[in-house]
Amino acid sequence: AAFNGDASDWADRKSDNMVYFNIWAYDPSWTIKVTENGKELSWTKVSMKDPLHLVAYEAARFNNGGESSFSTGTTAHMFRVQASSATSTLEFRITDRFGNIYTHTMTRPLTMSADLREYK
Description:
This protein has 120 residues and is of the alpha+beta class.
């Protein structure tokens, strides 16, 4: 479909257990720790389009036949980590330059919802 061209990295089905995550306001002084079943995983910083931005802004223009008012470009604050399984739980611990710690538990497989209260 026409959207596949804009979806770039996300247009094809994957089965490599690669998990992508976006850390807004990231800078190199931050620390990132991702664990799976207590084992720390190596992460990689990547430059690519954020899939949530694509869905929110680009897919809507195809559904409505219009133009996106906020086009999706590549972002320098995307990361990836390879999990051992598509159903494992990942723990994220991000520490910013001021010592603020942000944690998130990602239970997989993910269920998607339009209710933004579910994403804290």
